[in-house]
Specification:
Layout: E1 2-7, E2 13-19, E3 27-32, H1 40-51, E4 54-59, H2 76-104, E5 109-114, H3 116-127, E6 133-137, E7 154-159, H4 167-176, E8 182-185, H5 200-219
Parallel strand pairs: 3-4, 3-5, 5-6, 6-7, 7-8
Antiparallel strand pairs: 1-2, 2-4
């Protein structure tokens, strides 16, 4: 894994971590963090995708607010700091950084993300060009983005028992975006991250569906 500096489309210099694909490279993957920055979870999941043949690029999304912001725990301070940074960063800056990542990676380029990252991955799939497919994990903004249609094949994953994303909102998203396969798992929020909400079966199934989506895009 290497750390490098990229230049956003608005001229801002931000850092990113790159993990080379194991074996034959299938494509590039932009992996967007939770609100906790590029912590150990992101490294772990990045390596999982790399072992499946994807060159992974993980932008440090809050560098405009705090260079290298990272939190390992999920205590009140970590959550409040991450939420504040996400709100301050806004949509335009996030899309500018992701667009720079698309330009940096050799295609085909995919995108995925978790929580905050799931929302940004969906927004990128709707607003940016150059993405082959998107897999969005428990993005809390998706119900409010249901009027936007992705430009590339996209799937979404939610926990049925997620206290932060009411199932009614997920169902409204599903009704509005019938072209986006949306999966409800018997799990809570953060089911793909080892910890209190980790649900191994849901995590494994969501990863299988994500890799199948990417594989189908590679065959087109």
């Amino acid at each position: 894994m290497t750390r490098e500096t990229l230049t956003s489309t608005d001229g801002f210099a931000f850092e990113a971590e790159r993990i080379q694909a194991s074996g034959a490279r299938k494509g590039g993957l932009i992996l967007i963090q939770e609100i906790f920055g590029l912590n150990s979870f992101m490294t772990t999941v990045g390596k999982r995708f790399a072992t499946s043949g994807y060159e992974v690029l993980m932008p440090s999304m809050f560098d405009r607010q705090e260079k290298g912001f990272t939190r390992e725990g999920h205590d009140e301070e970590a959550i409040s700091s991450g939420v504040a940074h996400a709100q301050a960063n806004g949509r335009d800056a996030a899309m500018a950084d992701i667009e720079a990542c698309i330009a940096t990676l050799e295609g085909p380029v995919f995108i995925s993300g978790f929580c905050y990252g799931g929302s940004m991955a969906y927004l990128a799939a709707c607003e940016l060009d150059g993405l082959a497919a998107a897999s969005c994990y428990y993005g809390g903004l998706l119900p409010t983005l249901k009027s936007l249609s992705p430009k590339c094949p996209t799937i979404a994953h939610f926990g049925r028992d997620d206290p932060h994303i009411p199932v009614e909102g997920v169902e409204a998203f599903m009704a509005a975006r019938k072209e986006v396969p949306t999966y409800l798992y018997d799990a809570g929020h953060g089911f793909a991250r080892e910890g209190n909400d980790y649900a191994p079966e849901a995590d494994a199934l969501a990863m299988t569906r994500t890799l199948e989506l990417f594989g189908a895009a590679l065959e087109r």
